[in-house]
């Protein structure tokens, strides 16, 4: 039976977050990513079979800016490493990395989750997130993005699959990110959509969960068809 954890992430002064629930499947892909012959194409193929396109693999550094994606829902799968802390729902309020990571330089109301190998997270568009304190420790982010030489997303599936096939998995904390086909992610920080949160909340619900497909145990059953974006809220 699939273990499912969900979190309600309400809007803050600086972050839109979402009426949809944040979904976490602990260790759902552990057997796949623990295999001796594991290659990222295993996860690429799984996501693709459910209408989600893998777009990057990241080896995480010690911290990053809290951010969100305004035009796409995101799936992140932990494919390597011993773990990291993921903070959801709040904006950083200072540029000082130590303060916004280990101090008090972020909004109140954060939800922190310890990510482990094989975990899968599904983030609704607008949900703030940052990854820090990876295990084993790594100084800086190393980002592998599936793009052409001109900076556009690789659309040819065979070429994209070959891109992921060539990425080495060497034990650092790494996640693989995917989005519904036709969606591309952007990088937004606190305050970018002030007064315009509904624009983010209107991103259409995907037809399938990236891992569980049409099962009601996943996104299809957990997310309502369309969030209420017509309330009188000024957010």
Automatic annotation (TrEMBL):
SUPFAM superfamilies registered for this protein in UniProt: RmlC-like cupins
In what ranges is there compositional bias, type Polar residues? 226-235
Annotated region (Disordered), positions in chain: 207-235
Full protein name: Uncharacterized protein
What is the source species? Aaosphaeria arxii CBS 175.79
Organism taxonomic ancestry: Eukaryota, Fungi, Dikarya, Ascomycota, Pezizomycotina
